[in-house]
Amino acid sequence: MTTSTKIEKKECPYCSGKGYFQLLLGGSETCDNCHGTGKKS
Question: This protein's superkingdom (predicted)?
């Protein structure tokens, strides 16, 4: 029996771990799902 350690990225799937969305007209908006942390809640 072999066990392997799996490294998972625990980043927010909505903002790709950035913590914000880049707006089309310029500027950015904080991601509501992770509240700007960039981590999966």
Answer: Bacteria
So what's the pLDDT on residue 41? 73
One-letter amino acid at 37 equals: T
DSSP secondary structure string for all residues of 1-41: ----------B-TTTTTSSEEE-TTSSEEE-TTTTTS-B--
β partners of residue 11: 39
What tokens does 4 get?
A: 């392997």
Neighbours of 1 (CB within 10 A): 2
- Residue 15, both tokens: 């903002």
